[in-house]
Each structure stands twice: as C-alpha cells, then as structure tokens.
Design goal:
The protein is mostly helical. 34% of the residues lie in helices and 5% in strands. It comes from Mycolicibacterium vanbaalenii (Mycobacterium vanbaalenii).
C-alpha cells in the first residue's frame, strides 16, 4: 500500500516489503536429434515431398527462366506517362506540386533515414503503376540490378518522375516573367 503525505496518515505501514512470489519454471523443450528446436505439439514431416526433375519454370524455348529477370514490360495501355529508368520503361503519374512538397517535408532535413526511406517508398508506390513499382523493387534488390554508379536508385527515380512537374513549373514561371505587364 502506498501512503501519500496528503492522506494525513501518521502511521507508516509496518510491512513495506513486497509479497514474495514463487518463481515458475518455464517448460523447456530440448532439440530433437537433428538439432531442430521444434515444439513437440507440431508434427514433423520426416520425408520431404519428392521434387520434380526440374523445379525451374521454363520459357517458350524450354530454357529455365531466371527468377531474377522475369519477363516484364511496361503497361502498354497506361493512360499516364512513362519514364526510361536504367533500361526499364516505367509507367507513372506526374505528381502534384503538393505531393512533391509533402515529400520534401517528410523526407527532408531533420528526418531520420527510416523516415526518408518510408516517405520516398510511399511516394513511389503511389505514383508508379503497380507493375512498374514491383519491377523497380526487384531490380533494386538484385545484386546486379542497377549499374554500380547508381548509388541511390530510390532518390533518382523520385527525381525522374518529378521532373515533368518541375519542368512545367519552371516554364510557367518563365512565361510569367516574359509576359507583358499590364498598365495600372
């Protein structure tokens, strides 16, 4: 029991020690003879399923496909824009100015690397088509996916899909500067 000065208590409890609780031993399962730590309540499959002679998917030539290079192409009927990014034609939507501004705030100076990565990934996932985003991620993960000089593919792609917006804003600003000024 806790006694506070505001309780007007004049007598302090005699037993201030917490009650002793008897420790409970956890049940420990030792590994099976193979060294696996499998709980005994789960059945262990002793014999794996026999594999077919070829587990590799085959393409039209009968050659096994390389899982690192799936047959991929940009969506031909994509209604928005496309950008060439290190050999891939990726489908994307030109971001609104508010999206680029929000990305700059969320992933800008003062943000942790995890926050920067989260906002850049979210920006890309909402502006790329799902197939293009998948392709970008697969190539980013592969050891030889992008050339060695590409050190920040995520940032490079954000810049590439933001470029049409930035070009348009720059052209509008230039047009305002060169437009004849009206008389007051």
């Amino acid at each position: 029991m806790t006694i506070y000065a505001s309780d007007d208590a004049t007598k302090v409890a005699e037993n201030t020690e917490p009650d002793q609780i008897e420790p409970v031993r956890a049940e420990v399962h030792s590994p099976d003879p193979d060294g696996n730590h499998t709980p005994p309540s789960y059945p262990i499959d002793d014999e794996p399923e026999p594999a077919d002679e070829t587990d590799e998917p085959e393409d039209a030539d009968g050659e096994p496909e390389d899982p690192a290079e799936p047959d991929w192409s940009a969506e031909p009927d994509w209604e928005h824009d496309h950008v060439e990014f290190h050999g891939d034609l990726l489908a994307f939507r030109v971001p609104a100015q508010s999206a680029v501004t929000s990305l700059g705030i969320g992933a800008g100076p003062g943000s942790t690397p995890n926050e920067q990565s989260f906002y850049a990934r979210y920006f890309l996932s909402t502006h790329l088509s799902s197939q293009s985003f998948q392709r970008f991620l697969m190539r980013s993960i592969q050891p030889d996916g992008y050339p060695a000089e590409v050190t920040d593919p995520q940032g490079d792609l954000v810049n590439a899909i933001s470029k049409p917006l930035l070009d348009r804003l720059e052209a509008e600003a230039k047009a305002r500067k060169t437009a004849p000024k009206g008389k007051k």
